[in-house]
Design brief:
Structural class: alpha/beta
Strand order of the largest sheet: 3-2-1-4
Number of strands: 7
Shape: globular
Number of helices: 3
């Protein structure tokens, strides 16, 4: 079902994002591993490759509109599945999930879900 597709998994350098990326790869999905940390993104991409999957690392913050547009452009022609596991830690508030305003398209503004 997902074989031959590409999943962009944000926040994939660790935690739930990493778990989702690994599972999607086991199901035959090619993974674009996104994380704010380049070393973490590369580590998970390598882990997927060592298990026989296909992955590329793409380091970017989900708040960096230009980088996210570049990331999406790399995957647009391949039948993208989007899985957003990114969030941010806000002092005095803890973890705050992010949401993407889809009405604006690929370059839409990212904002805190609780703002």
């Amino acid at each position: 079902m997902l074989g031959g597709r590409i999943a962009i998994v944000t926040g994939a350098g660790g935690g739930l994002g990493r778990s989702h990326a690994l599972q999607l790869a086991r199901l035959g999905t090619k993974i674009l591993v996104n994380d704010i940390g380049v070393a973490l993104a590369k580590q998970v991409a390598r882990e997927i490759e060592l298990a026989g999957g296909e992955a590329i690392a793409f380091a970017a913050s989900v708040r960096d509109e230009a980088r996210i547009e570049d990331m999406v452009a790399r995957a647009m022609d391949a039948g993208v599945v989007w899985l957003d596991c990114a969030g941010e830690v806000v002092p005095d508030y803890g973890f705050m999930p992010m949401e993407r305003e889809l009405a604006g398209g690929p370059g839409a503004e990212l904002k805190a879900a609780n703002s």
